[in-house]
Amino acid sequence: MANIAVLASGSGSNFQSITEAINKTEHKVVCLICDRKDAYVFERAKVLGIKSYYVPYYKREKEDVEKEIDQILSSSECHLVALAGFMRIFSSYIIDRWSNKIINIHPSLLPKYPGAHGIEESYYSGDLEMGVTIHYVDTGMDTGPVIYQESFTRRENETLESAEEEIHKIEHRAYPEILIKKLDSINKTV
Ligand code: GRF
């Protein structure tokens, strides 16, 4: 059995799909960490029975915030960390301590369209292929080594809304699958 923590900032639909999938395995989602007090993900955590922590960044030194996050991760005895719509960039303080153990999902085919508007930028680029990227996290913005990518071909009459829907459908299936594979391989070495 291996433990995973999820960090999110917003709605938390990925947090929910990760938790529901992991609940069917021997692994465990040990906690949610969120930097926005009113984020809907807290409601989802309550319903799913996952312990949640609010860790604000506002008017704090980044290193102090990251120390707090590091302490929560360590005391939760987690082996892997999944970012799911977590809108912050980590410094080397966290990255060095959790090297190759932090994974992110991004809604574009990186290295194209990193940042907060991956879906809109992919859609308005006119690219025929759109998709998602799951990657290790480093100190850059969506720059870490790619673990998995999945694309789909823009359909006739594709709207921004229908493209978004397709991307989330892929995310909600692929992200839990990749995370569970990682947890399985950690399990063998623990
Ligand atoms: C997802 O599209 C994810 O790829 C991106 O942020 C979004 C989070 O959505 N990093 P949700 O909060 O999981 O619903």
What does the secondary structure layout of this molecule look like, with pairings?
Layout: E1 3-8, H1 13-22, E2 28-34, H2 41-48, E3 52-54, H3 62-75, E4 80-83, H4 92-97, E5 102-106, H5 118-125, E6 129-136, E7 146-153, H6 160-189
The structure holds 5-O-phosphono-beta-D-ribofuranosylamine (GRF).
In short:
The chain has a 7-stranded mixed sheet with strand order 3-2-1-4-5-6-7, with helices on both faces.
Task: Describe this protein's structure.
It is a single chain. The chain has a seven-stranded mixed β-sheet, sandwiched between helices. α1 runs parallel beside α2 (about 40-50), α1 packs parallel to α6 and α5 packs across α6 (about 160-190). It has a domain at about 5-105 and about 135-145 and about 175-185: Rossmann fold, CATH 3.40.50.170. It has helices at about 15-20, 40-50, 60-75, 90-95, 120-125, 160-190, and strands at about 5-10, 30-35, 50-55, 80-85, 100-105, 130-135, 145-155. By secondary structure, it is α/β, with parallel strands linked by helices. The chain is built from six helices and seven strands, in the order βαβαβαβαβαββα. β2 (about 30-35), α2 and β3 form a beta-alpha-beta unit. The longest helix has 30 residues, at about 160-190. The structure holds 5-O-phosphono-beta-D-ribofuranosylamine.
